[in-house]
Amino acid sequence: MDHSADAHRTDLMTITRFVLNEQSKHAESRGDFTILLSHIVLGCKFVCSAVNKAGLAKLIGLAGETNVQGEEQKKLDVLSNEVFVKALVSSGRTCILVSEEDELAIVVEPSKRGKYCVVFDPLDGSSNIDCGVSIGTIFGIYMIKDHSEPKLEDALQPGKDMVAAGYCMYGSSCTLVLSTGSGVNGFTLDPSLGEFILTHPDIKVKKIPKKGKIYSVNEGNARNWDAPTAKYVEKCKFPKDGSSAKSLRYIGSMVADVHRTLLYGGIFLYPADKKSPNGKLRVLYEVFPMSFLMEQAGGQAFTGKERALDLVPKKIHERSPIFLGSYDDVEEIKALYAEEQKA
């Protein structure tokens, strides 16, 4: 790569320009989605700045409260949630919001209502803040038919009905990965410009191998797994077909683990187990957005029973097992669950 030439590029595809280009392909578009996305991007920039100076600004440590999931809240959790709620409400394009940090869905006041429902985890992996591991924001966007009278049911739609999903990862660089239903694109924040620049165009099948060399799972829970998960992980470590064993890579921050899986291929597993029989990851704002992105990139997402995006949640903080990644890797785990059901 010619870095010197890259440094002097003047034709930069910013995320705003990219979304405006997409908007121009739809004659009926009035720009509402573009405005909503610009507010999400602003929230990501704010949180990125806060994460970068967390230690200096005394934002590390506990806020002294627990969230609706029973998890101890970090100061940055609370700040990030406030930032995104205010950014989304002030866009004037949302009518109902679901956040990991709030027990109830937020219904936007009538004067600021729009046609979108946004589900989000403002700071996923926040238990890793103190040790500098990559963390991130995950979001999914639905369109609501009747936004004048939003109801809780409007947020309880299957993942396949999402119009867009994405995440922003705060790590060695700030990376925003987005899909509006026609492929996946990655943007990196250029701090000198304050803009997200397209750096990973069209993350699709050609770049996510049909079968990967990496598996990602918390093996500390192995004794509590069901038989198909245990068999699959055993197969990864000790393949009987003469192929090389897969490498284990597990960060413990969903955004970082899924980001690596998107770029390098392989499989990410968070199965149900004896301790968490319904799985641990939340359906609306973790499982659905990441499954949406993985399918758009040519991979698959499976719950152990069905395609993840076909799941219809009954509660806003419902949990589910999830297996997502390269197409053939997920096919293998699906086959093991099918065998188990027959038996």
UniProtKB/TrEMBL annotation:
Q: Does the record carry rRNA-binding as a key word?
A: no
Instruction: Specify whether Ion transport is a keyword of the entry.
Output: no
**EC number(s) per entry:** 3.1.3.11
Q: Which organism is it from?
A: Coffea arabica (Arabian coffee)
Annotated ranges, domain Fructose-1-6-bisphosphatase class 1 C-terminal: 208-337
How is this protein named in the record? Fructose-1,6-bisphosphatase, cytosolic
Reaction(s) catalysed (UniProt annotation): beta-D-fructose 1,6-bisphosphate + H2O = beta-D-fructose 6-phosphate + phosphate
UniProt main location, coarse: cytoplasm
Q: Which top EC class is named for this enzyme in its record? A: hydrolase
- Fructose-1-6-bisphosphatase class I N-terminal domain mapped to chain residues: 13-201
The source's domain of life comes to: Eukaryota
